[in-house]
Write a structure and sequence with these properties.
With 133 residues, the protein is mainly alpha-helical. 29% of the residues lie in helices and 6% in strands. The chain binds heme C (HEC) (3 copies).
Amino acid sequence: MAMMKHTTLAMAAVLGALMGSPQARAEYGDVVMNNHSEQNGINPVVFPHWFHRARYGCKVCHSDLGMELEAGANGINMMTIMDGQHCGACHNGEIAWQLEHCDLCHSGKSGLETQVHGSTSAQLNTTQGEEAR
Ligand code: HEC
Ligand code: HEC
Ligand code: HEC
């Protein structure tokens, strides 16, 4: 039984890699958001700013979606997101993967404060060591 379980898990991992399933990463310039998360029992959010900046012009978020240029200044929470604002303008299963992937956003280690991060992923992610691959 145990053996079969391992085989199934290994196959799932291979399939996941082939299909390029999303995975949480963190890097320099990421914005940590923890105004609401931990006090409500879930890990802080790590918003990969550069990842998004490489795909969209600043205007998309900081003008069209009305987000202020300051970590923690936008009152973002799950209600606004589910309402289609902030992250929810794209993470709706159409433009980007949908909200059921909690861990991809709530990937921060506990204890992190809302801030712009200036260090390496090893200090942020719950999945340490990913970067070494
Ligand atoms: C696209 C990114 C994203 C996804 C996916 C996501 N969240 Fe969040 N969530 C946020 C952000 C951003 C906040 C606000 C962060 C902060 O300041 O603490 C937040 C806040 C929260 C909070 C704090 C209370 C509140 O209502 O705001 C809870 C609890 C929460 N999320 C649960 C979840 C659960 C459970 C899932 C999966 C079903 C999920 N989140 C998926 C981005 C996300
Ligand atoms: C996909 C959306 C998105 C795009 C595109 C984007 N940003 Fe941001 N940016 C954010 C969010 C979200 C925050 C954090 C706001 C918060 O915590 O409420 C932020 C924060 C910031 C901040 C304050 C934190 C810091 O790093 O000092 C600056 C400055 C900033 N963005 C500049 C830019 C510039 C310049 C561009 C274009 C090159 C850009 N952003 C593109 C979403 C985006
Ligand atoms: C303008 C559209 C847009 C907005 C707004 C946006 N995202 Fe994204 N995000 C994307 C797209 C597109 C991807 C890539 C999806 C894919 O790979 O399938 C992505 C990917 C991600 C990833 C995975 C990055 C990686 O390394 O694969 C995370 C985490 C994430 N977003 C969090 C957030 C959070 C948190 C917010 C709100 C603060 C947010 N996003 C707002 C469009 C957006």
